[in-house]
């Protein structure tokens, strides 16, 4: 069996309330297209999606988290009210061009009559609403206030009539409603005023303006809360950064102290090693000095002994040479004598030999 679903169900399944195609003013129940529907200023269908199921989903989700759809709805209503105020100003300029110029005093009296008409219309609309709701006593009280305002209006109209010519007074003086930009006549009867101020158009504009004021207040509060949360998060982040910097500085200090301690230990060990090496070198130098001194003393003694030995040897040699020279001279004399004697004997022998031969 095939079940046919209406187009709304398919759209609801495809689109979420967070989609940009969904009207945020509709989710907050303040879209002008819904409020002014069926009035003289009916705006027609909204260009965005309107769905009551999506509004229900939004109401459930908004209780769990902040979605800030109020900002979108506020922008929408502000643009709509700005357009309405622009039309009101244009209507005022048009009335100023078409109606006769009156003095400031007469204008003030006419403005007073208009204000009393507006008050009567609002009171009558409220009395009718209370009567429809069944609150007859409150409705009667309001009707009593209406009679009092009517008496004030009659006095204001008399003042206005006395300040103007009869021909000008009979001319209909119009006024633009500041709420819905509709035209109001100075001589409108109570029924016309009640229909206007109790009508859907006027009440719809009042609802839109009140909703806009409420949205502005809500957006301001949420923005203030968001700013406070952002400021608190920033302070927490700065606090964490300060703590992290402090911990990092402490860690650096500990590392520096450790490194200084290691350098001190290294310097102490190095100084000890230097002292040891200096002591060992001094001992070595002392030993070498002692050995050199010993060797020097030994060499000195040896040199002295050698010198003494050489001296003795030289003395002995000199004495030997002297003795040898003396002996040589003596041997020379002896040899000369021997040679001379040998010569004589040889010559004698040779003479004897020669004589024997002869």
From TrEMBL:
Q: Does the keyword Coiled coil apply?
A: yes
What segment(s) does the record annotate as region Disordered? 219-358
InterPro entries, per the entry: Luc7-rel (IPR004882)
Q: Which domain of life is it from?
A: Eukaryota
Q: Give coiled-coil spans as residue ranges.
A: 81-159
What GO annotations for molecular function exist for this entry?
A: mRNA binding
**What are its GO cellular component terms?**
U1 snRNP
Spell out the Basic residues composition-biased ranges: 245-304
**Keywords, comma-separated and alphabetical:** Coiled coil, mRNA processing, mRNA splicing
Question: Which PANTHER family does its entry note?
Answer: RNA-BINDING PROTEIN LUC7-RELATED (PTHR12375)
Recorded protein name is LUC7 like
Name the species this protein comes from. Answer: Oryctolagus cuniculus
Gene that this sequence comes from: LUC7L
């Amino acid at each position: 069996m095939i079940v046919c679903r209406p187009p709304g169900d398919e759209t609801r399944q495809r689109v979420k309330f967070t989609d940009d195609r969904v009207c945020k003013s509709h989710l907050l129940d303040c879209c002008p297209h819904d409020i002014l529907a069926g009035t003289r200023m009916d705006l027609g269908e909204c260009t965005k999606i309107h769905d009551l199921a999506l509004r229900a989903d939004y109401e459930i989700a908004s209780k769990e988290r902040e979605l800030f759809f109020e900002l979108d709805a506020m922008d929408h209503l502000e643009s709509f009210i700005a357009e309405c105020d622009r039309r009101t100003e244009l209507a005022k300029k048009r009335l100023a061009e078409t109606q006769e110029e009156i003095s400031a005093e007469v204008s003030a009296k006419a403005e007073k009559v208009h204000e009393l008409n507006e008050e009567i219309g609002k009171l009558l609309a409220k009395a009718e609403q209370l009567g429809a709701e069944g609150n007859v006593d409150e409705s009667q009280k309001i009707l009593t206030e209406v009679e009092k305002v009517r008496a004030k209006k009659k006095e204001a109209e008399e003042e206005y009539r006395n300040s103007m010519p009869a021909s000008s007074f009979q001319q209909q003086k119009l006024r633009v409603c500041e709420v819905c930009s509709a035209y109001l006549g100075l001589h409108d009867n109570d029924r016309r005023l009640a229909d206007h101020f109790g009508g859907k158009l006027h009440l719809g504009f009042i609802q839109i303006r009140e909703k806009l004021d409420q949205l502005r207040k809500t957006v301001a509060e949420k923005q203030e809360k968001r700013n406070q949360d952002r400021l608190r998060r920033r302070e927490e982040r700065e606090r964490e950064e300060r703590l992290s910097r402090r911990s990092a500085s402490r860690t650096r200090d500990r590392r520096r102290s450790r490194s200084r301690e290691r350098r001190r230990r290294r310097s102490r060990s190095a100084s000890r090693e230097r002292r040891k090496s200096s002591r060992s070198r001094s001992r070595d130098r002392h030993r070498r000095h002692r050995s050199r001194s010993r060797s020097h003393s030994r060499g000195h003694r040896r040199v002295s002994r050698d010198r003494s030995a050489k001296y003795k040897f030289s003395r002995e040699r000199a004495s030997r040479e002297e003795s040898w020279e003396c002996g040589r001279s003596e041997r020379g004399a002896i040899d000369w004598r021997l040679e001379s004697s040998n010569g004589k004997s040889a010559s004698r022998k040779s003479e004897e030999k020669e004589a024997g031969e002869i």
